[in-house]
Write a structure and sequence with these properties.
Structural class: alpha/beta
Strand content: 5-15%
Shape: globular
Largest sheet: 4 strands, mixed
Number of domains: 2
Helix content: 40-55%
Order of helices and strands: EHEHHHEEHHHHEEEEEEHHHHEEH
Mean pLDDT: 86
Low-confidence stretches: 234-239, 317-324
Number of strands: 12
Radius of gyration: 22 Å
């Protein structure tokens, strides 16, 4: 994998994407490897026993999982890159089911060598899809709206970094050993593999609440870099406003201003503060009139963030000015 060589056009068209399917794969990896990040500790404790019981109920599941993923390897057909045509989790899941069995078995041999007899049949893609569907239905579907807000906050933060500092600022540190080298060269990892040229490729970056990121691509030229989300919205109850600021402008208004250390939408502020929509809208209007908050459009969303004056009032460094 080593270096990905990305053309200017491919880079300009690349985008950050939130995917319930990718999040499901990440959740499966977290349950398998037993390494939940702090943002999903409660979720993990709630579901790990049920997941273990599910593995015990079907003796063929564990050999399948062991073949599908290892600490530094994951089967390509398990995690197809996001496709704009996929509107739901099940749209992507269907792509897993449609993997030709001989290709699925060949991929598994690449990762784990000789396959056990239980993986020699033509049902490997269906069994893989069934496993992912179980994880989605039993552990993640009701959790997804909250996780989506967390992941969308990460995407907004990354796109803000991109607008201020270019691709180096947005992509450096996306994964532990990933670096933007310039001249279209993106180091994916430190492995000594021949460069991969992404001419004509569709590239996206996908945040995930899992410690283990990965890269994936398909035969149609779609490529994805999955990375661990910063979890900026994961623990709203820990957010506090400075006491002096609360006395000056009021507790709820101070809380909103404190939360706008990075771009956030109204929906994300609702999730963080548990205030009503009218209350959030009123606080934002007052903060904007006072010159403490500004807003801008990011794709289809309107995001709010602190101005240098607002940052000064909170006691944080002012955000860097955008390049002219």
């Amino acid at each position: 994998m080593g270096i990905w060589q990305i053309g200017a056009e491919e880079l300009a068209q690349s985008r950050f994407v939130v995917s319930p399917f990718i999040e499901t794969v990440g959740a499966l990896r977290t349950l398998v490897h037993r390494d939940p990040p702090p943002e999903v500790q409660d979720w993990y404790r709630t579901h790990v026993a049920e997941f273990r019981a599910h593995l015990t109920s079907d003796p063929q599941l564990l050999p399948l999982i062991q073949a599908l993923m290892r600490p530094r390897w994951i089967a390509d057909f398990l995690t197809p890159p996001p496709d704009p045509a996929d509107k739901t989790f099940r749209d992507t899941l269907q792509r897993v089911r449609q993997t030709p069995p001989r290709i699925a078995r060949a991929i598994l041999r690449e990762g784990s060598g000789r396959l056990p007899a239980s993986l020699s049949g033509d049902d490997v893609p269906d069994r893989t899809a069934d496993l992912l569907e179980w994880v989605w239905e039993h552990t993640l579907r009701t959790e997804w709206p909250r996780r989506r807000l967390v992941l969308e906050a990460d995407v907004l933060s990354r796109t803000h970094q991109l607008s201020l500092g270019g691709w180096a600022a947005a992509l450096d540190g996306l994964r532990s050993d990933m670096r933007w080298l310039g001249d279209g060269a993106l180091r994916i990892n430190a492995y000594d593999f021949p460069p991969r040229v992404l001419t004509g490729a569709q590239l996206c970056y996908v945040p995930c609440l899992s410690r283990r990121g990965w890269v994936t691509w398909d035969q149609d030229g779609r490529h994805a870099i999955v990375y661990q989300s910063s979890g900026a919205l994961a623990e709203p109850t820990q957010t506090r406003s400075p006491e002096v600021l609360m006395r000056l402008i009021g507790g709820n208004r101070a809380l909103v201003l404190t939360l706008l250390d990075q771009p956030r939408t109204t929906s994300q502020l609702l999730a963080l503060t548990q205030l009503g929509l009218g209350s959030i809208g009123g606080h934002l209007a007052v903060l904007r009139e006072a010159g403490l908050v500004t807003r801008r459009r990011a794709g289809r969303s309107v995001v709010y963030l602190r101005t240098p004056l607002g940052a000064s009032l909170v006691g944080s460094p002012a955000p860097p000015a955008a390049s002219p």
